[in-house]
Write a structure and sequence with these properties.
The chain is globular and about 60 Å long. Helix content is 50%, strand content 12%. Strands 7, 8, 9, 10, 11 and 13 form a six-stranded mixed sheet that branches. Strands 3-12-6 form a three-stranded antiparallel sheet, covered by helices on one side. A two-stranded parallel sheet has the order 1-2. A hairpin with a 2-residue loop joins strand 4 and strand 5. The N and C termini lie far apart (52 Å). Helix 10 crosses helix 12 and helix 21 runs antiparallel to helix 22. It is of the alpha/beta class and 439 residues long. This is Extracellular solute-binding protein.
Amino acid sequence: MNMRTTKTLSAAAAALALGLTLASCGSSGPSDSSANSDSPSMWALTGSSEKIFKSSVDSWNESNPDDSINQEFFANDAYKTKVRTAIGAGEGPTFIYGWGGGVLQSYVDAGHVEELDQFLADNPEVKDRYIESVFQNGVIDGKTYALPNNNMQPVVLYYNKELFDQIGAEPPETWDELMALVPKFNDAGVAPFSLAGQSKWPNLMWLSYLVDRIGGPEVFKAILDGDEGAWSHPAVLEALTKIQELVDAGGFINGFSSIAADAGADSALLYTDRAAMMLHGGWVYQNLKNDAPEFVESGAVGFVPFPEVEGGAGDPMNVVGNPANMWSLSATASQEQKASAMNYLKDGLFNEEYTQAMIDSGAVPAVKGIEDQLAASDDKNFVEFVYGLAQDAPSFQLSWDQALSPAQGDAMLANLDQIFIGAITPQQFAENMNATLGK
């Protein structure tokens, strides 16, 4: 065991233990803000952007006591359940953290979120700061209901360079090359891939990329449009088959279905040399900087695009993931809360300090004119890689569990979990999901 691994092993063990704890009992997050507070409330996620959000709000509150914000943080899986329940009961936070897509559409349809077009017309510099393709993720039926609040997050293939050097391998550029690496790493006593299967949504990264590489973005568009039998498209069935072939070949860490992503246990397997690769979002790099700085500083972490599938119709430059996370404002907040919240969106969000802090964390803010700052970053290789992926992608597809309606997204994750553990066939998955179309 090398020195770097020794330094990080105790932290990794703690992360894995917490991951298994969350897998068994869940996490409820902090207590609620007072519903009677005159200050706007903000719910956000623990993890990669937490320090930046907290620092921004603390600084804002100090400088703007009349517009102060009550902020709380929740683990990803717990938040998604909690916020839907709270919003449905009319008790959601003033600032609603989201991903856009079908979930935002459901909030708009139910009248739960505030339209922001007049605010943007009165403050045109706010819209002008954003990369247009990312900004559009908060637009529903021509009206704006959410603004990007953090970084562009394409899903990338991370790999442990030291483990690759040990077996004399290069990161895969094609699916066949990926599959050929599986027995080599298994023979070396290393899991080919880390995966937090208990959280379910990490499984989706595999399906969305494979469907895109095999059939192109039009396949998922047909699903979004509710086309009859869309889930039975040959690209979907082939992608599911490839996933099960990868599982059967021993592609994932033993016990992957009991590992939770919120605790960082999947990342820990990568930086403690127990797994060679991990398919995950751009936000993971920030987590690695926090949890295993020596792994990042030593240059041991590598990152490449998802491999091409030979003969596939999808452009290998396409990416999937999150263009950025978003802030929406609750329609049920008081006028005073909305006014204070809009002041923060105008002057606190993506000001100079906020943007630089995000870059310093190893993230790529979803704003224009930051090329020089990225080039000067200590994480230049990664941030310019991510910026290039996002800028050059012919298609940047939003994570499916957010793009779909909540009911469809939940059903998809549940059925995909059954695919990964071998409980259903690709045909059964398609039949189950076709029954959700239009819901």
